[in-house]
Design brief:
alpha/beta, nine-stranded mixed β-sheet, 273 residues, 5 helices, four-stranded antiparallel β-sheet
Length: 273
């Protein structure tokens, strides 16, 4: 029987790992926050918190209370998404493996003692200290690589290059207040067009392209908060399918888990000799 895996975050990059692991038969539970703020909602299993259920790449996720997780895992009808505090989920479920894929650029409370195997995705984690394995999340030659000693590459503060754009593709809040979207994921937008408002302040696209992600409406934001992402490649299908980056990170998570399982099996055989 495969070990239970708790994944912190149901965002777009985390969803690459969730997809690969669930397809491989692992029992996966997603731990999201009560009001998720992911912008690539159409490729995030955590979007079930907003919708109740989310279907992505033929797999379904469902927002359920913690007490219903075991039944849902047994049926495999959907991937459970819970919004109880991480500490409560850890205590109740006692997962064998924890994957922190929040991508907060810092460790927000995951510890090596949380499970038998703890994996951290991206900067903010140090393999051998606060987690057992780190998976690289920066685009480039080392994307998806497992790190067994030391940290991931440091956060540069520069968004990854997509379609020839970095800073320009990301739209941030011009002020603090309540955000209301006026465009939808998959829409074609022009440079300078209004995609939403924070209070009465318009939010403009900076480049022409496809709106790959946008924050859900009626969420309070701070100035500089990430609101949307425009993709100049204008491939609508990219808005609704798991990205190459997410699948690469998911492959790294899968490697870390299967390598750990192999070591456990070797140890059992050694003990039985």
């Amino acid at each position: 029987m495969k070990p239970m895996i708790l994944i912190r975050s149901g965002g777009d990059v985390a969803s690459g790992a969730i997809y690969r692991l669930w397809r491989a038969g692992y029992p996966v539970v997603i731990n999201e926050i009560a009001i998720p703020t992911m912008i690539r909602r159409e490729v995030s299993y955590g979007n079930a918190v907003h919708r109740g259920e989310m279907i992505l790449e033929r797999l379904r996720s469902r927002h359920v209370p913690l007490q219903d997780v075991a039944k849902l895992l047994a049926s495999r009808e959907a991937i459970p998404v819970v919004t109880e505090p991480y500490e409560n989920v850890l205590t109740t479920m006692k997962p064998i493996i924890v994957v922190d894929a929040i991508l907060a650029k810092r460790n927000v409370g995951t510890q090596k003692s949380d499970a038998s195997l703890v994996i951290g995705c991206g900067p903010g984690f140090n393999a051998g200290k606060d987690v057992h394995v780190v998976v690289e999340t920066m685009r480039g030659h080392t994307l998806g690589r497992c790190i067994y000693e030391g940290p991931a590459l440091a956060n540069t503060g520069i968004p990854g290059n997509v379609g020839g754009y970095t800073h320009e593709r990301v739209i941030k809040s011009p002020t603090k207040g309540l955000f209301v979207a006026k465009s939808h994921i998959g829409d074609q937008v022009e440079a300078g067009s209004i995609i939403g408002y924070v209070e009465d302040v318009p939010v403009h696209a900076k480049i022409t392209g496809t709106l790959r992600g946008i924050l859900a409406s009626n969420i309070l934001v701070t100035k500089g908060f990430k609101l949307a992402d425009v993709d100049a490649r204008c491939e609508e299908s990219h808005c609704f399918t798991i990205s190459d980056k997410a699948l690469a990170v998911g492959g790294g998570v899968m490697e870390a888990i299967t390598a750990w399982e192999y070591e456990q099996i070797k140890e059992l055989y050694h003990e039985s000799d």
